[in-house]
Amino acid sequence: MSNVKKGKDKEWLEAQLDFCYEKIRANLKTFATLVPPAASCNQIYQPEGNTDWTASFWVGQLFLAKEGTRTNDFDQVIENQIASFQNRLDQKIELETHDIGFLYILSAIADYQVNAHQSSREMAIKAADLLMTRYNEKAHIIQAWGDLNAPEQRGRMIIDCLLNLPLLYFASRETGDKKYYKAAYLHAKQTQKYIVRDNATTYHTYYFDTETGQAKYGKTQQGYSDDSCWARGQTWGIYGFTLSYLYTGDTSFIETAIRVADYFIERLPKDNVPYWDLIFNDGSNEERDSSSGAIAVCGLLELAKALPLSNPKREIYQATALAIIESLATNYTTKNLPESNGLLLHGVYDKKSNTGVDECMSWGDYYYLEALIRLNQSWQSYF
Ligand code: GLY
Fold first, then answer.
1. CA distances from 123 to 82, 110, 126, 253, 305 (A)
2. 108 and which of 51, 123, 238, 302 could share a cystine (Cβ 3.0–4.6 Å)?
3. Which domains, and CATH codes, for the chain?
4. What does the mean pLDDT of the chain come to?
């Protein structure tokens, strides 16, 4: 039985959280205005400017630490980071990406939610307007990457985008303009229809004809093969479909989240931390992706919460989330590697291009902390 269940819950969780807070405090100077890159290099994040899709996972951790410790210790760096996100939006620095969602949910929306700054509300709406420019009215999808006319990227949507949709749902709620909601909803429907296969595995990406709106074919970018199931994509699906259910009330999304979650759970190896592609399992020499384990904990907890008390899957999802977090906390953190400035070891960014393999991932650190916070206190998601 997991430690978290044995009644040591609070003490055990607080010890894990204290470890994270201490690391984050130690990082405040290095990342006062700069940010950790997507992945560490030999387990150390080298500071960089606010230009990548992952830049907000640091300020996201600061908001979690602020809420978790109930102190103002993180406020100055949060303020610096929010100014940097405002500048990035004003100057449109490297924003030809659907990840405007991750970027402005964990900066602008979190700041509005936690600090009630009106300027951050405006920033989030302006970011949502920019994300809307990537929406294709014919295909009903948000293009993931690059210039809208780039032949390689035109009409390509990806499962990760489900986590970017809350920026649009937020903008609709705040402005009363349904256009954002409609785009997010239709994009989620297309993801459900084309990205999720009949056996509940998922494609990473899917191409559409932007002139006719016709769906074309699925293709992987970071998975093992076009017909395998990239672990992180599957966990973006668990969390993402649950979020679209919560924002729209469309119960088919919760059914899809359940199918995607059940497949993921079925493919977990003995120690409950997934390999980087679910095609691999116990006995494989391939790497784990701890970051997808952390995302899964958040997604499974949100999914369990959304199910009726009478649904037996609720307990299964909660128990699996606890088993994953215990495994991560016991064997996957930097506790025994004090020189590392990350939280969670053994993530994989992109195995095929040999980028960030067996390293700390900035989003892995964020979702690991979000998972612990979810288990320890009542907390309102930024997504
Ligand atoms: N959203 C890109 C990734 O998960 O690597």
1. 10, 11, 5, 29, 30
2. 123
3. 5-376 (1.50.10.10)
4. 97
Max Cα distance, the chain (Å): 58
What is the reported pLDDT for 75?
98
Query: For position 3, what pLDDT does the model report?
Result: 59
Please pick, among 52, 111, 160, 365, the residue that the annotation labels catalytic: 160
Q: Which residue from 383, 370, 287 is spatially nearest to 332, judged by alpha carbons?
A: 287
349 CA closest ligand 1 atom index: 5
Active site residue 9: no
Whether the CB of 232 sits within 6 Å of ligand 1? yes
| pLDDT over threshold 80, residue 5 | no
Q: Could you confirm whether 99 is annotated as catalytic?
A: yes
- The residues pairing with 48 across neighbouring beta strands, listed in sequence order, are 35
Q: Which atom of ligand 1 is nearest to the CA of 233?
A: 4
CA distances, 94 to each of 89, 103, 287 (Å): 9, 11, 30
Query: What was the pLDDT predicted at 39?
Result: 99
Q: Give 88: exposed, middle or buried? Use CB within 10 Å, 0-12, 13-18, 19+.
A: buried
The pLDDT-based confidence of 2 (bands split at 50, 70, 90) is low
Q: Are 332 and 365 in contact (CB under 8 A)?
A: no
User: In 288-366, at which residue ranges do the beta strands (DSSP E only) sit?
Assistant: 347-350, 355-359
